[in-house]
Design brief:
The complex is a heterodimer of chains A (about 550) and B (about 425).
Chain A (H helix, E strand, L loop, with lengths): L4 E7 L3 H12 L4 E4 L15 E2 L10 H17 L4 E2 L3 E5 L1 H5 L4 H13 L5 E3 L1 H7 L9 E5 L2 E3 L1 H14 L3 E3 L2 E9 L2 E9 L5 E11 L5 H6 L7 E11 L7 E4 L8 E5 L2 E5 L3 E2 L12 H14 L8 E13 L9 E2 L2 E5 H5 L4 E6 L5 H16 L20 H5 L8 H10 L16 E3 L4 E2 H10 L5 H8 L12 H12 L5 H16 L5 H14 L10
Parallel strand pairs in A: 1-2, 1-12, 2-9, 5-14, 12-21
Antiparallel strand pairs in A: 3-8, 4-8, 5-7, 6-7, 10-11, 11-12, 13-16, 13-17, 13-18, 14-15, 15-16, 18-19, 20-21, 22-23
Helix pairs in contact in A: 1-6, 1-10, 13-15, 15-16, 16-17
Chain B lengths: L18 H5 L12 H14 L16 H5 L6 H12 L6 H7 L1 H10 L1 H9 L1 H11 L15 H8 L9 E6 L1 H7 L1 H13 L2 E5 L8 H5 L3 H20 L3 E4 L2 H13 L12 E3 H10 L13 E5 L3 H6 L2 H9 L4 E5 L18 H18 L3 E3 L3 H10 L4 E2 L1 H8 L2 H7 L3
Parallel strand pairs in B: 1-2, 1-3, 3-4, 5-6, 5-7, 7-8
Helix pairs in contact in B: 2-4, 6-10, 10-11, 11-20, 11-21, 15-17
Classes of the chains: A alpha+beta (about 550), B alpha/beta (about 425).
Chain lengths: ~550, ~425
């Protein structure tokens, strides 16, 4: 039987948990990371993928702004292959003058940015249009800021890979059954392997609750109450990049005011709606949300009105009620790190929550500091200076040339996704270079690599590692090829049909809210070919 | 810097049905070409993200546009590919490509020395040298140049008569009819005159630029396009329609100008008319009346060029030819001849070009017509060389089949 004694167990394989696992492993702790689904399957993979400059928070929340710009600079260095330096614009439209966010506000905004250490520069509307030709030409003012885009799947995966390289164990599809509580202290966990149904005990002196919005339920299993408020954020993905520079609206944060170019698509979002906990596991984007996002998106970038929508999706922010105000009226959007020994008298348990994708590393640092403190260790954090595996210098072309003097599109795309680790993908056998997903240039070799080294068990996992099926056809063209390749790599070809059906159901769900025009054509096509797709109804 | 970054060319409408791949003549014959779907809409998303995803193999596209005709989603696939080449290709045109592309520059040069040029271009040693030095395939029969251009003949022998006709058109002759084969333009003039149309040259007519687009000389093509559209504006202001004979020139003037070169032609577009639809409509609406020769006999196989397929007007040619008594018409299957303008001249494309055309050549041989009817000059070069059957433009067929004198008398008023 495997050794089930650890220094620290981390619950939650989102970016926060993955980052914490990496930090713990780098500091020499024997680490176990537990995730009930796949890594990055919750809120981590359901956001803009915006590398905030912090400008968005500068006016109202200087602390968050400072955290953002500091982490922004760090991520560019330690995760170069996950980050794209697109630059960002905050634009002012004529109608913003009427709502009090005109050019006077722009001045306040720039001052606040500069105070927080964010390089914000007022540029003319003409220069903004040169920088980003798709920006609304009606703009009356623009500020350039160091925004960028970050790929959350890659970032999370890189953290997991590095944690494992430093000895951490990772269990996905493993559910926290209960805590082992002895003498008022959490001394371990009982974990349910969701595939075998077996419950096993694992011991550690400290357990970290990094389960995002599901952290409230995790804490409850230790008898601890944390007041969390799930806030749904809906987003729309378009078929291709309409913009190459992040476009924000220069006004108080509102729905649908950020358009981010990420990989081969662009994403408009988001909304913010409080939802009941029951909905967190099955979020639906309503037609009303789609309309709102589209309307706001078109005022940032008018050509969105004629651009194909691939799908809609939603994530849930783990907002935490301030302990001093359990009514939830005063909600923090900052990082919350709770030591349950001092807070609730339960030893051996730490909760890290709140925060955002952008500040995951800082959250991990805070959580790991707390773990070390509890373990009586004094070990410095190195994550701000140690590059993640694959980081390299982010130059796709140079990396892809390692395969050949004339790399194929599949090799270039793989270089973009796996950075410096791309060399581990082997193009040896004659069919390795064969394209499986044509929209996203995913080769058989990349699929084989993902199964072998990145812990892939189904097509959703594979999608998060490689972008398979994320393109224009949403899998309707390639998914049987991908399913067959995956099933073969997993060693059980008979799985293919089931894998494909599950994947298409999930894609279908995202297409329904935007089911008109070209998206509807794709759905009809998918349904006719695969006899898939349940109808959904809305109260909207 | 991204200039065009909106839903251009409908590329995201692609549903990946792959019909385009089934009709692409190059994909079936050249494994180095990734095909229209990959080179067009698929890669466009990645090119928008990063120019490094531009692939050199796009140069194998012949721009015959059969993919666009086949696409049920209206994706302008060939345009996407040409646009990507314009935007990202860093290869500057070779000497050979520049020579092939500059039909308007080479034409006057070669015409001046036509007898010498024609003889030399036919000699095996010269062809060997051209093959080895600039990559013009030695197996290719090169088009001949005429010692007298159409325009110089027209000015001397025909121009003065044109005002006497009851109706008038402006004639866009293009480079081929002017420099290589003036007989086509003379036939055109004879037929139109017989139908009662005065033929007028277009002041300031330039090469349409299609060969320049294909060979990466976009700026020169834009200059041609702007000059032509300005010339058309003046010409149409006199109330005359512009009539053309080459399907490729016509497709370029109508479609490539706005789609690829971003030269606006919207105000003159509807006035540009291909000979066959123009004449078919004139006859069927009773504006003109043909008198056909007694005893005309010919077995004719019609080949519809790729760009005619794109324009969708092949049906007019067919119906027009069917009007001719004594003409037995056989419609050939829809196959590319493989020539595609300057494509088939190039050493690296010769084999593929021949392979693409094979089904067509075989069909022509089995039909064994007296000659092939076709509106495209480069199809003519390929078919005559590879199928061994002569090719005539429908304009010339009409010139032969009409009793020109009686037609003239009937259409005088």
């Amino acid at each position: 039987m495997a050794n089930r004694e650890f220094d620290v167990i981390i619950i939650g394989g989102g970016i926060t948990g993955a980052g914490t696992a990496r930090d713990c492993a780098l500091r020499g702790l024997k680490t176990l990371l537990v995730e009930r689904d796949d890594i990055a399957s919750g809120a981590t993979g359901r956001n803009h993928g915006l590398l905030h400059s912090g400008a968005r928070y500068a006016v109202k929340d200087a602390e968050s702004a400072r955290e953002c710009i500091s982490e922004n600079k760090i991520l560019r260095k330690i995760a170069a292959n996950c980050v794209e330096d697109t630059g960002g614009l905050f634009i002012t439209l004529p109608e913003d003058e009427d709502s009090g966010y005109g050019l006077d506000y722009q001045k306040t905004f720039v001052e606040a940015c500069l105070d927080a250490g964010i390089q914000a520069r007022i540029i003319s509307p003409e220069e903004a249009l040169r920088m980003e030709p798709s920006v609304n030409p009606r703009l009356i003012g623009a500020v350039a800021v160091p925004d960028g885009s970050v790929d959350p799947f890659r970032l999370c995966s890189a953290n997991v890979v590095d944690a494992r390289m430093h000895g951490a164990e990772v269990l996905t599809y493993t559910f926290l059954d209960s805590f082992i509580i002895e003498n008022g202290a959490v001394t371990g966990v009982r974990l349910l392997d969701r595939r075998s149904g077996v419950v096993s005990e694992y011991r550690a002196a400290v357990t970290v609750n990094a389960a995002g919005i599901w952290g409230q339920a995790v804490a409850a299993k230790a008898g601890i109450s944390i007041g969390m408020y799930p806030a749904k954020g809906a987003l729309l993905v378009f078929g291709h990049r309409v913009n190459n520079v992040v476009i924000n609206r220069c006004r108080k944060s509102a729905d649908g005011d950020i358009l981010v170019p990420g990989d081969s698509v662009c994403v408009i979002g988001t909304t913010s709606t409080k939802i009941p906990f029951e909905e967190c596991d099955d979020m639906r984007v309503t037609p009303g949300e789609v309309r709102l996002l589209l309307r706001e998106g078109c005022s940032l970038c008018p050509s969105l009105s004629s651009t194909r929508i691939l799908r809609a999706y939603a994530g849930v922010r783990p907002l935490v009620a301030s302990d001093s105000d359990p009514t939830g009226r005063s909600i923090s959007r900052g990082i919350v790190c709770l030591d349950h020994e001092s807070r609730d008298g339960v030893k051996g348990l730490v909760t890290i929550t709140g925060g955002k994708l952008m500040t995951y590393r800082l959250m991990a640092e805070k959580a790991t500091d707390a773990v070390c403190r509890k373990l009586g260790l004094d070990r410095p954090c190195e994550t701000a200076v140690t590059p993640l595996p694959g980081s390299g210098d982010g130059r796709i072309e140079a990396v892809s040339r390692r395969f050949s003097g004339k790399p194929t599109a599949g090799q270039k795309a793989a270089a973009g996704r796996h950075g410096d680790l791309t060399g581990r993908i082997r193009f040896d056998s004659p069919d390795d270079g064969a394209l499986v997903c044509e929209c996203e240039n995913v080769t058989l070799a990349e699929i084989r690599y993902a199964v072998k080294e990145l812990g892939v068990t189904n097509l959703e996992d594979l999608r998060r590692r490689t972008r398979v099926g994320m393109g224009t056809c949403q899998g309707s063209f390639c998914i049987r090829k991908a399913a067959a390749a995956l099933a073969e790599a997993l060693g059980d070809p008979s799985l293919a049909d089931k894998l494909a059906a599950e994947y298409l159901e999930e894609r279908w769900k995202g297409m329904v809210p935007a089911g008109w025009g070209d998206t509807l054509r794709e759905m009809e096509f998918m349904q006719r070919v695969y006899k898939t797709g349940k109808p959904y109804s809305y109260d909207d | 810097m991204q200039e065009i970054n909106i839903s251009d060319k409908n590329f995201e409408q692609c549903q990946k049905c792959s019909l385009c791949e089934t009709v692409c003549p190059v994909m079936a014959n050249n494994p180095a070409y990734a095909g229209p779907k990959r080179s067009g809409p698929d890669s466009e998303r990645y090119r928008l993200k990063n120019g490094i995803f531009f692939e050199d193999s796009l140069k194998y596209c012949m721009n015959g546009k059969r993919c666009e005709v086949a696409c049920p989603s209206g994706v302008k696939i060939a345009d996407l590919i040409q646009q990507a080449r314009i935007k990202f290709s860093t290869a500057s045109p070779k000497l050979r490509d520049a020579m092939l592309a500059s039909t308007d520059l080479m034409g006057p040069l070669a015409s001046g020395f036509a007898p010498i040029v024609n003889i030399s271009l036919g000699l095996a040693p010269v062809k060997g040298v051209l093959d080895a030095t600039i990559g013009l395939d030695h197996r290719r029969t090169l088009p001949k140049y005429s010692s007298r251009t159409f325009t110089s003949w027209f000015r001397k022998h025909a121009a003065a008569l044109q005002d006497s006709f009851p109706r008038h058109i402006s004639y866009y002759h293009g480079c081929y009819a002017n420099y290589n084969y003036p007989q086509l333009a003379k036939d055109f003039t004879a037929v139109m005159n017989a139908f009662g149309y005065g033929v007028h040259l277009i002041e300031g007519e330039r090469c349409c630029g299609v060969a320049k687009i294909a060979n990466g000389m976009t700026e020169a093509a834009v200059r041609d396009a702007k000059a032509n559209i300005n010339a058309f504006r003046k010409a149409t202001a006199t109330g005359r329609d512009i009539v053309t004979v080459s399907t490729t020139c016509t497709m370029t003037l109508l479609e490539e100008y706005p789609e690829l070169l971003k030269v606006d032609n919207s105000d003159v577009k509807s006035r540009i008319k291909l000979f066959e639809p123009f004449v078919f409509e004139a006859i069927s609406s009773g504006i003109v009346k043909p008198v056909w020769k007694e005893g005309f006999k010919a077995k004719v196989a019609y080949h519809s060029p790729c760009h005619q397929e794109r324009l969708g007007w092949g049906i007019f040619t067919i119906e027009l030819l069917k009007m001719i008594p004594g003409l037995e018409l056989i419609e050939l299957g829809s196959n590319c001849c493989g020539m595609a303008g300057t494509y088939g001249f190039k050493k690296e494309n010769f084999k593929v070009s021949q392979k693409i055309g094979e089904p067509l050549f075989n069909e022509i041989r089995s039909v064994a017509p007296d000659y092939v009817a076709c509106e495209c000059e480069t199809c003519k070069w390929q078919i005559e060389m590879s199928a061994g059957v002569s090719v005539k433009n429908p304009v010339s067929i009409l010139a032969e089949a009409l009793d020109l004198e009686k037609t003239s008398e009937l259409n005088r008023a």
